[in-house]
Write a structure and sequence with these properties.
Elements lengths: L2 E4 L6 H9 L2 H16 L17 E2 L12 E5 L7 H13 L24 E3 L2 E3 L7 H10 L13 H5 L2 H4 L42 H4 L2 H17 L4 H13 L4 H13 L3 H14 L4 H13 L3 H14 L4 H11 L7 H15 E6 L6 E5 L6 H17 L3 H13 L7 H19 L12 H5 L1 H5 L15 H25 L5 H15 L3 H12 L5 E6 L7 E6 H16 L4 H13 L3 H14 L4 H13 L3 H14 L4 H13 L16 H11 L8 H16 L8 E2 L2 E2 L1 H13 L6 H14 L3 H9 L3 H23 L33 H21 L17 E7 L6 H6 L2 H4 L5 E7 L7 H9 L2 E4 L5 H10 L4 E4 L9 H5 L5 E4 L14 E4 L10 H12 L6 E6 L2 E6 L41 E4 L9 H4 L4 H7 L2 H19 L8 E5 L8 H13 L3 E6 L5 H13 L1 H4 L2 E4 L4 H6 L6 E3 L8 H8 L4 E2 L12 H7 L4 H4 L4 H13 L2 E12 L5 E13 ...
Parallel strand pairs: 12-13, 12-15, 13-14, 15-16, 16-17, 17-20, 20-29, 21-22, 21-24, 22-23, 24-25
Antiparallel strand pairs: 1-3, 2-3, 4-5, 6-7, 8-9, 10-11, 18-19, 26-27, 28-29
Helix pairs in contact: 1-2, 8-9, 8-10, 9-10, 10-11, 11-12, 12-13, 13-14, 14-15, 15-16, 16-17, 16-21, 17-21, 18-22, 21-22, 22-23, 23-24, 23-25, 24-25, 25-26, 25-27, 26-27, 27-28, 27-29, 28-29, 29-31, 31-36, 32-33, 33-34, 35-36, 44-45, 46-53
Length: 1434
């Protein structure tokens, strides 16, 4: 019979009534009425069909173990009378347990007896799948049912009655779902015993139906419904057991009864009986997968795991969409006891492949989506399967495959939409809202407030009232669970896009995914994560309200991203008012916006919610420390460490806070034990969980070492897997070759690398693989080099567009050490650790810049002849800040004939005179405080900046991401950070050879290594043989010598360093990845000659030098008596005005030794901070006694002008060797007070700055020492050799009216000795000192910048052709003598000769290709280089 199927989703009470009465004709009429009601095919819903016409029942089997729905099939014209056939079909369906419900919009059918998945035909009836409604509808149906069972509790939802045993039985499995079994009800009879009343008139237990009545199918089904309801409430009920046994006796082959009976046995602990009934089911129907699955569950409970798995696999293979067996099997394969992810993935792939039917065009028309043989109500379970498949791939390292599975899982419930179409839809919603509220169209990100994000699904899916189409048929807990899974999927995809930078603008995808996830599930955690993301978007300012602790909200200007972040944090707290993470991150955002007091309150709320929340405790310590309450912060850090002994941020915070107040209790394992309860508590907290005791500084060093080792694994497996190159590496190198297709240098390296990767086995590949010490770092460094070289080539070609360089696929963002670059100033770390800490921070910025393709890398335009070079300065410190104090005049001192100066301020104007001076001095001053990174970079490019100077480095307020975007050809770092940036986005560091000796500089070390080996740069030729490329060395290529070569930094693998040493190399004491721009006197500029002229009147009145010096001594004496009236005149005052964190125990012991040997000396310190005074006094008493401790004096910190003026009170300044006085040293020298310094570390710039500045005064030898003993001896000698007498100085007093009056005599203390002589020289010569000659310093800087630009235009900055290789013969030795003192002396001598030769030939610089630039002063060459040989001993 030809059939035309018509879906009729209508209520069918008349059909049910007719079927109950056995009136098949009436049933047919009711069916026709239903069709008419649904389709409008007939004018009257109750009209009977024309005479001789009948409509057969069409059903479709749920091939996946669920119920079925009734469909009506209209016969084609001329089919004839089919009533007889319809009756036959109804009888067949009834034999399989069909039941009908009064108001249910579909009829139900168990899957019993039907073969395999898909549809099956019984007679003329087609059985097709159908699914339950939402739980709230189900409950309404149950309440509306009219079945009257004597003692039963009424009818119940058919899905429970005829769902597969997996739905009730497998719920008790140990796999994915569990139900406690408990003991068997002692009052119930054992299931399997005969129940009483076997006669035909006896009642079925628990009902008012007799056994005779129960023989009818409709009554049997009603009783079974009641049994299911009872099973759901009390599976161990004795009534249930009797009821099911009765039904089984009456209907021994009724599969639904046997199924529930097996379940009841299992619940009562009768596993054997359960197996018996399930096996009976399989005897009746060998392909009944529900029974197979339940056998597996029963066997698992009996400890027969392998047999259980076999039964589950059998069920899944027969019906891949039988979800309960799939999920139970998945639970076993992924159990924590012994996960078998490979097998679990095979299961997912089998089910996925079996259910997938192909692809169809997406609803948005941009591509295709996968189609599956899964009914709508089961889409959620398909989504879970694909989610699991993605998780398994991710766990097995296939990140790209996991992402594809996650995307398919989401698309499975999008109703034909692709994921990218969903993202674009959210973007359109955001754009419409932005246009409505008048947002900035330049902001190319979908920025939605929480209320708008919550409505985004309603806007995208109005037909389903905002539900995802694939979930629209669910309700209640099933819908909530499915939405929870979908939300998690979207969050997982968002994280992958964040980490992997899959698209050019990750946030354009990440934010929509978060919005949809939040719309699906209003989760405070999602709000928290959105707040974190949005707070990092520095978009244009907008007014917002920041909560205040001072009563009510207060207006504030915050970036748009931060304003939205505040809204999401607040929205999250409305969902969960005790969410500690939300309070913590809200506090961090407020702190970043400058509301530190409010931040403290939020952190305190977080701690109230969770007193052991280590992050909140540590952040609270940070905020309190920022408020200047350093001592108070220690307690919070200590609580954080006690809560989580291995929480590295807390350990480092505790270390910094304690060092900041000189609380050295439990500082070192080798130090003295603490002598008080507080010290013992600190030591116990640090040592908790450890085998051997150690101090907190030992822990910090250990943490740094551990994180640096772990960080070396970043990117492992992305480029090399199993010793072979990955497809990602091949694609990466191929892409770079397309950017630099030909040429020498880096292009030649890429040709070699491409051939080695394509070969993948030979010696060239093995050597390249050994060069990949850190796969991620290697890729980023190479990508940066290629991008920079591409900029240069476009410049040569006159092009305006820059080539796009992408990172390898699957390379996530790198980890960053907890120990920050700034912390390395005072931590006992070696050269490699310091280098790597900066380098790892730089890699994070580089990765973000390379992954963010929305930031273009511009191509510079050369200045025309006679035009000025454009120099840009970027800083957050163009305000009342030490950097502005030092540099405020430099910008205006540039030669306007050769330079045009641009300043980019990344903080708002503070109205200070320093800001005004800088603004006036620049040709162009741009306030970029509220600008996004891309906008700053684009503006720098539009300004045509040729050389861009970074005045921050790794300091507060830095915008290093601007430099990582390389908006200018030449990038220079200077002043802000006293160390290496370790970055590919910094070409030069302005320094001098005292602070950065050449043997600590990468380019110099590489050149020296090559010179010592006598290696000329190797030439590699490429040959093509058919389709294969091979590498041929100009010299004989030897076979791989083994792994020992990998540990040798100068082994053959060095030919693969593409022109630079790898920061990850294990050996080498070098630190600086930048080439140096060596200044001739000192790199440290200052503005004291222009900014601090308070004694000009004194100088003008004095006349002669002797008179000026006598007058100056009178000023010093008066100020000394004002500051220290209690001190006698014979007391020698040592001073140190640094922050107290620069003082370490070793130095303090040296100071105490000085005081012990110089009994008439004192040491003057600042309360910087005030809390440090008590700790230093306590330690002084413990280590040297009360008498010595009493000679340590403290005063408060003074304003800048007072600070500089009272510097003359001190007789000498004792420097801090670990991290020197920098600005303070210059302040002291300007006052004429000598500075005693010890450049303690060769690899730490910060420990050599004072040596640099004192050497620029031409008095260096008297103020620089090379050891701790020399430091003490020199200070003691200064104190003991000092003497004084008194002179009377006449001062003319002016009378009223301007006439000269009587002369007043003043007794003045006059000092004698070496220190007094040095003070006189420093004071009288300061206006002629190179140290304070700012204009001269600026001219020398200009020489260096011009040379840096010239080298960039010619390509000499990256050349490997060191002139040293031509000037000097190759050395034979390859031993560690390179780093001996004799080698350094020989090295220094060569440099001195080269620099002197350049100066003698009137060259402004000495600049060997590919190496540092040595600037020669116009008058005296380069005095700083003369210190090189002296420094070899330092």
């Amino acid at each position: 019979m030809a059939m035309q199927t018509v879906n009729a989703t209508v209520t069918l009470p008349s059909i049910e009534h007719a079927l109950q009465q056995g009136n098949m004709a009436a049933a047919v009429a009711a069916q026709i009425a239903a069709v008419a009601a649904a389709t409008g095919q007939y004018p009257q819903a109750a009209q009977a069909p024309p005479s001789g016409m009948a409509f057969p029942i069409s059903r479709q089997l749920d091939g996946y173990g669920q119920q079925a729905t009734l469909q009506l099939a209209a016969p084609a014209a001329g089919s004839g009378n089919n009533v007889a056939m319809l009756q036959q079909q109804q009888q067949q369906l009834a034999s399989y347990g069909m039941t009908d419900f009064g108001t249910q919009p579909f009829l139900t059918l168990p899957a019993a007896g039907l073969q395999g998945p898909g549809s099956s035909v019984l007679g003329g009836a087609t059985i097709m799948p159908a699914y339950p409604q939402q739980p709230q509808q189900q409950q309404a149906l149950l309440e509306a049912q009219t079945h009257q069972l004597g003692s039963t509790t009424g009818g119940f939802y058919a899905a429970s009655a005829f769902n597969s045993m997996g739905g009730v039985h497998a719920a008790m499995a140990d796999g994915s779902r569990r139900v406690g079994r408990g003991a068997e009800d002692s009052r119930s009879k054992a299931i399997g015993e005969a129940s009483g009343g076997a006669g035909s008139n006896a009642f079925v237990a628990g009902t008012r139906f007799t056994r005779q009545q129960a023989m009818a199918g409709s009554v049997r089904d009603a009783i079974l419904q009641s049994a299911h309801k009872l099973y759901a409430s009390n599976p161990r009920s004795s009534v249930l057991a009797e009821m099911l046994l009765s039904l089984h006796q009456l209907h021994p082959r009724h599969l639904p009864t046997l199924l529930l009976l097996a379940c009841a046995c299992f619940s009562n602990g009768q596993a054997g009986k359960s197996l018996e009934y399930n096996e009976l089911i399989l005897q009746i129907d060998p392909n009944y997968v529900e029974a197979m699955s339940n056998i597996g569950t029963t066997l698992r409970s009996m400890g027969k795991a392998s047999e259980a798995e076999a039964w589950w696999w059998r069920a899944v293979r027969l019906r891949p969409g039988y979800w309960d067996a799939v999920e139970n099997l998945m639970g076993v394969l992924c159990s924590a006891r012994g996960p078998r992810y490979g097998e679990a993935l095979q299961l997912c792939e089998f089910v996925d492949g079996s259910l997938r039917t192909g692809d169809e065009a997406s609803r948005g028309g941009t591509g295709t989506v996968a189609t599956y043989q899964v009914a709508d109500a089961q889409r959620a379970r398909l989504q879970s399967l694909l989610y699991s498949e993605g998780n398994l791939r991710f766990a097995l390292g296939d990140v790209a495959g996991a992402r594809r599975d996650y995307e398919r899982a989401v698309e499975a419930v999008l109703g034909g939409l692709r994921l990218d179409e969903l993202v674009r839809g959210v973007g359109k919603c955001a754009a419409q809202i932005r246009d409505q509220v008048g947002g900035d169209p330049a902001v190319d990100l979908p920025l939605l407030a929480p209320d708008a994000a919550a409505r985004v699904l309603a806007a995208l899916f109005p037909a389903t009232q905002g539900e995802l189409p694939g979930l629209a048929g669910l309700g209640g807990s099933a819908l909530r669970q499915a939405k929870h899974v979908a939300s998690n999927l979207l969050l997982q995809l968002a994280k992958l896009h964040q980490d992997q930078a899959i698209t050019e603008q990750p946030l354009a995808v990440v934010l929509p995914l978060y919005y949809v996830a939040l719309a699906l599930e209003a989760s405070p955690s999602t709000c928290n994560n959105l707040g974190i993301i949005l707070s990092a978007i520095p978009t244009p300012p907008t007014a917002t309200l920041v909560p205040s602790l001072q009563g009510g909200p207060q207006a504030a200007q915050a970036p748009m991203g931060a304003a939205l972040a505040l809204q999401y944090y607040t929205h999250g707290l409305a969902l969960d008012a005790r969410h500690p993470h939300l309070y913590t991150n809200l506090g961090s955002l407020l702190k970043d916006l400058g509301y530190v007091a409010e931040a403290v309150r939020m952190y305190e709320k977080a701690v109230e919610c969770n007193p052991a929340f280590d992050v909140a405790l540590a952040n609270l310590g940070n905020a309190i420390k920022d408020l200047g309450r350093v001592q108070e912060s220690v307690a919070w850090y200590l609580r954080a460490v006690q809560a989580s002994p291995n929480f590295v941020e807390a350990v480092c915070g505790l270390a910094n806070a304690m060092a900041g107040v000189c609380d050295w209790r439990a500082r070192d394992a080798a130090g003295p034990p603490p002598t008080d309860a507080a010290g013992e508590q600190i030591q116990a907290a640090i040592a908790r969980g450890r085998i051997t005791p150690c101090g907190w500084m030992d822990r910090v060093v250990e943490i740094a070492d551990h994180q640096l080792r772990d960080g070396r694994r970043w990117g492992r497996g992305v480029l090399v897997a199993g010793g072979r190159p990955t497809p990602a590496l091949a694609a990466f190198v191929d892409a770079l070759r397309r950017v630099l297709p030909d040429g020498a240098g880096l292009a030649a390296f890429l040709r070699c690398a491409q051939a080695a990767v394509r070969d993948g086995r030979g010696a060239p590949w093995r050597r390249l693989a050994r060069a990949l010490r850190n796969e991620g770092g290697w890729a980023v460094r190479l990508a940066e080099r290629v991008a920079a070289e591409a900029q240069r080539r476009r410049f040569w070609e006159g092009a305006r567009d820059a080539a796009s360089v992408r990172l390898p696929a699957g390379l996530a963002a790198p980890p960053v050490p907890t120990v920050l670059p700034f912390h390395t100033f005072t931590y006992p770390l070696d050269a490699r650790a310091i280098r790597l800490i900066s380098h790892r921070n730089a890699l994070r910025l580089s990765h973000a810049a390379l992954a963010n393709h929305s930031i273009a890398r511009p191509v510079a335009q050369a200045p025309n002849p006679g035009e000025a070079l454009h120099v840009g300065y970027v800083s957050s410190d163009f305000n009342n800040h030490p950097l502005a104090h030092l540099m405020q005049s430099v910008f205006g001192m540039h030669d306007r004939r050769r330079f045009r100066v641009f300043c980019y301020a990344t903080t708002a104007r503070d109205g200070s005179e320093h800001r005004h001076t800088i603004e006036r001095g620049a040709d162009v001053f741009r306030d970029c405080a509220a600008w996004a990174t891309a906008r700053i970079a684009e503006q720098i490019a539009r300004d045509g900046v040729h050389v861009l100077v970074n005045l921050n480095g790794y300091t507060k307020g830095a915008r290093n991401e601007v430099f990582a975007a390389r908006p200018a050809p030449v990038l220079v770092a200077f002043m802000g950070f006293a160390g290496t940036l370790g970055a590919g986005w910094c070409d030069y560091l302005v320094a001098d050879p005292i602070v950065c000796p050449p043997w600590t500089v990468r380019c110099e070390v590489r050149a020296e290594r090559r010179r010592r080996r006598g290696q000329e740069p190797r030439v590699r030729e490429m040959e093509e043989v058919g389709a294969n490329r091979r590498i041929k060395d100009a010299e004989a290529e030897s076979e791989d010598k083994g792994e020992e070569a990998a540990s040798d930094p100068d082994a053959d693998s060095s030919i693969w360093d593409f022109g630079e040493l790898d920061p990850e190399e294990d050996c080498g004491a070098w630190v600086y990845t930048e080439r140096m721009l060596y200044m001739p006197h000192t790199y440290f500029v200052n503005d004291h000659r222009q900014g601090f002229r308070e004694d000009d009147d004194l100088r003008a009145a004095a006349g002669s030098a002797d008179a000026l010096w006598r007058a100056e001594q009178a000023v010093r004496y008066r100020m000394r008596r004002s500051v220290f009236p209690q001190l006698s005149d014979d007391v020698f005052i040592f001073a140190n005005f640094n922050q107290l964190y620069k003082i370490d125990p070793q130095l303090f012991r040296l100071w105490l030794r000085i005081l012990e040997r110089a009994p008439r000396a004192v040491i003057w310190l600042l309360r910087f901070p005030a809390a440090g005074e008590q700790h230093l006094r306590r330690v002084a008493v413990e280590w040297a006694g009360a008498s010595v401790a009493s000679r340590i004096l403290f005063t408060d910190v003074a304003p800048k002008h007072v600070h500089i003026k009272r510097g003359c009170v001190a007789d000498a300044f004792l420097d801090t060797p670990e991290c020197n006085a920098h600005t303070t040293a210059v302040d002291i020298l300007w006052s004429g007070t000598p500075v005693l310094t010890w450049p303690r570390h060769e690899h730490k710039l910060c420990s050599r700055v004072a040596a640099s500045v004192v050497c620029a005064t031409d008095c260096g030898p008297t103020m620089v020492v090379s050891s701790a003993d020399a430091y003490v001896d020199r200070a003691v000698d200064w104190a003991l050799s000092a003497s004084h007498d008194y002179e009377y100085i006449q001062h003319a007093e002016q009378e009223e009216g301007g006439g000269s009056g009587s002369a007043a005599a003043e007794s003045v203390r006059v000092c004698h000795g070496p220190v007094a002589d040095l003070r006189r020289k420093l004071f009288l010569a300061r206006d002629d000192s190179r140290l304070f000659d700012t204009a001269r310093w600026t001219r020398n800087l200009e020489r260096g910048l011009l040379e840096a630009w010239r080298r960039w235009t010619t390509g000499e900055d990256t050349s490997d052709d060191s002139e040293e290789q031509q000037e000097y013969p190759a050395a034979e030795s390859r031993s560690d003598e390179w780093w001996s003192e004799s080698h350094k002396l020989e090295w220094a001598s060569r440099i001195e000769r080269s620099v002197a030769s350049a100066a003698a030939n009137n060259r402004s610089v000495y600049a060997p290709p590919g190496r540092s630039i040595w600037v020669c002063d116009e008058d005296d060459g380069m005095p700083a280089q003369s210190w090189l040989r002296e420094m070899a001993a330092w």
